[in-house]
From TrEMBL:
This is Cupin-like domain-containing protein. It comes from the Bacteria. It holds the Pfam family Cupin_8. SMART domains: JmjC. Residues 107-265 form the JmjC domain. PROSITE patterns: JMJC. Gene3D superfamilies: Cupin.
Length: 330
């Protein structure tokens, strides 16, 4: 349950070799320690909030709010007809004031694009080594709270800039032991584990013990960062009255590629309930055309006639998407 890779603080414009291609989590102690945002947080919560106010105290932003009864766990309501929190809009400055005052509510500003909502913040609080990746950069801010284990499609470097955060990570192949909830009703777009990773009920969720045996737990302080590879499940706990995170998301695949979650949903529609022999036949086709595909898969077809079997590009992706839409709208 310890880090697979730990580095010393790298230079401001550098990352250790291999981090961005790693298929395992990488703990990066002190990666963002030089940021003014982190330096302010190390002085005090008030200094941290004062620093943030410079970048849009009157900006109105959406946030989640839950009463004391949810104990900081943003989750479903009891009958899974919705969630145990509500959406609100308020000014960024009012949120900072509320956090400093120590509200009894759980409040959570989720992924909020830094460049659009806080212009100028990245100028001195950035990771230049990621410039070529063109990352999407987000701010997360709240008090003591926790988010259920979920996965993200992009790779991610999560930088703690205030408070403490505990990350509990599971490899992608632990999905069967995580008791995943609905795919079409989710807190923030991604399916989540129904297990409270801070207080797991192993009587109700016994297979979760197998996932825990392979879990990796990381506790980060201001300035520390964690590389989370694509599709690693991760639950996050914010452990202080004022907690903030800046993360950098990017994909290693071309922009024209759709999320494979769409493919999964289509498979539920068209494959899952087929008779076993037909499912096996389709499994062979998927292996041939997708999972085991290589340059020989369509080599026997003249290049000009390979159509969607040819290497995918932006133009071919548009054609295929139009074909799918036409078929789905029959």
């Amino acid at each position: 349950m310890s880090a697979l890779a730990v580095s010393s603080p790298p230079a401001a414009a550098e990352l250790p070799a291999g981090v961005l291609q790693s298929t395992e989590p990488v703990l990066l102690r002190g990666l963002a320690a030089h940021w003014p945002l982190v330096q302010a947080a190390r002085r005090s919560d008030a200094a941290f909030c004062d620093y943030l106010r410079r970048f849009g105290a009157q900006t109105r932003l959406g946030l989640w709010r839950g009463g004391p009864a949810i104990d900081g766990r943003f989750f479903y309501n009891d009958d899974f007809s919705g969630f145990n929190y509500r959406h609100e809009v308020q000014t960024f400055g009012a949120l900072l004031d509320e956090l400093l005052a120590g509200t009894a509510d759980a409040v959570y500003l989720g992924s909020t694009e830094v460049d659009a909502s806080f212009p100028g913040l990245r100028q001195h609080n950035d990771l230049p080594a990621l410039a070529a990746c063109q990352p999407h950069v987000s701010l997360w801010l709240g008090n003591r709270m926790r988010v259920a284990p979920h996965f993200d499609l992009p790779d991610n470097i999560a930088c703690v800039v205030a408070g403490r955060r505990r990350f509990t990570l599971f490899p992608p192949d632990e999905v069967a032991n995580l008791y995943i909830g609905p795919l079409d009703l989710t807190p923030a777009g991604q399916p989540v584990s129904l297990v409270d990773h801070a207080h797991p009920d192993l009587t109700r969720f016994p297979r979760y013990a197998q996932a825990l045996a392979r879990a990796q737990v990381f506790e980060l302080l201001p300035g520390d960062a964690l590389f989370i590879p694509s599709q690693w499940w991760h639950g996050v706990e914010a452990l202080e009255p004022v907690n903030a995170l800046v993360n950098f998301w990017w994909r290693q695949s071309p922009a024209f590629m759709d999320t494979p979650l769409n493919t999964l949903m289509m498979a539920l529609l068209s494959l899952r309930d087929l008779p076993p022999a037909q499912r096996d036949a389709w499994r062979a086709l998927f292996d041939h055309y997708v999972f085991d595909a290589d340059e020989q898969t369509a080599a026997h077809i003249p290049p000009a006639a390979r159509g969607i079997l040819a290497p995918m590009n932006d133009h071919r992706a548009r054609q295929l998407r139009a074909l799918l839409l036409n078929r789905l709208n029959r």
